[in-house]
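1st attempt posting a full record on here, be nice pls
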Amino acid sequence: MTSSWPEGYSKRVLAEVGSTNAEAARIAPTLAGPEWILGLKQTAGRARRGREWKAPEGNFAATLVMRPSETPDQVALRSFVAALALFDALDAATGRTDWLSLKWPNDVLLKGGKVAGILLESAGLGQGVGHIAIGIGVNLIAAPPRAELEATAMHPVSVLAETGVRIAPEDFLDLLASAYARHEDTFRTLGFTPIRNLWLSRAARIGEVITARTMRDEVTGTFETVDAQGNLVLKTAKARETIPAADIFF
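the predicted structure (as tokens):
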């Protein structure tokens, strides 16, 4: 379960932080290269669409911040890079590849329950992206109580409860950073295609009927694929629907 720290990436570990993504935005202008920020205690974590992300001490809350050179649409594809890295890190920590799967657009499942999530935030710079913050939360030791979640939220699970494996956040960061660096190298040199293909091979519920709920409507159909832009593609009774952003329900 040991892993060496990847060359070219910096690391800072904070005893307490409001939000690792907020800290990433604060330090972004001073970056010399990509940097991981780990908060051992996070007091104001955020999930997608402004939702609260609670992380008791012992769970994992970290952000990778970098200043990318690609166009915004390409930068956004790093959510898939991060998902693959999370899958590999959880596999390395638990040895249970068979229990892991990826849920579009940015969750990792363990035995069908949500164990980890990804939040991308960015700031513009002219026509490009000034920085990107890839926030990652993992329920290493505890999952939030069901009563604290939205009624439609996916059942949360923890690594410890489901596998019996206890891993410290610092040790998990080493696994994650190493895995991320490998997939980032692939993304930079070969583009999105190999990332997409590997992600699809690990996708939850592909070929099954799922529901995608956007801010405006709801679409139910067969999960066919993810396209070259990272969009979800569903086959409905009427047509193939391409969905750039949504919450997914099984």
